[in-house]
Amino acid sequence: MSRVRNDLTIYDTHAADWWKPRSAFSCSLQAVNRLCLDEIVQVLGDDLHGVVVADLGCGGGLLAHPLAERGATVLAGDLSQPSVREARRHAGHAGVCVVVADACLPPFPSACADVVLCADILEHIPTWRTALAQAAGLLKPDGRIFVSTLTRSWWSALVAVHLGEGLGFVPRGTHDPAMFLTPDEVADYGMRLGLACSPAVGFTPSLLPSLLTGELRLRRTKRVQVGYGMWLHRAAQLSRDS
Question: Where do the domains of the chain lie, and which CATH numbers do they carry?
Answer without folding.
Answer: 10-241 (3.40.50.150)
